[in-house]
What does this fold into?
Amino acid sequence: MYRKAAESGFTPAMVRLSDDLARRSGDGPDRVEAYAWLQVALQAGLPEELQITVLSKIDALGARLGPGRRDEARVRASQLAALISTRGLSAHTRSSNARGQQSFEFAVARRVNAAMPARWRCCRVRRT
It folds into this structure.
């Protein structure tokens, strides 16, 4: 479900895809691929609130994989990073993630401001 967004460079989708791969039940979890997506997300630049979570997930998956499979996952991570960068999205991703977060915050602020009675509004929400 998150694969297309992750392949387009959206880092929160990379983290969600990694979670899905690590918990998959049909074919069994693909921990190598999950570890690789977490590595790519960390290298691509995550929002601050996800960085600590991703680092702890990398440690947990790395402990389960062992040294040999961890190296395999790192090779896969470099392949995934190359795939994303060949699409020309690696530098664009950080700015689009930031813009998406800003527009979301603006929309929330606008709704909150509109819901308040006029006499309680101390300022107008301006887009920066």
Remarks:
- Residues 48-86 form the longest helix (39 residues).
